[in-house]
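Quick note —
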Amino acid sequence: MLARQAEIAANMRKKSRYYKKPIIIVTAVIGLQLVFGFDPKFCIINFIWLFV
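Predicted structure written out below.
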């Protein structure tokens, strides 16, 4: 049981490292859109860059 919990925790740490960069980028894009006003071209370019 304890070994299974350790395995689950290790998998969660791996996934958090993998998804950390996209979460930071999405948050930054949304923040910039709110501060400087919505710019569709900027938004689309950043999301394309994120998913490529």
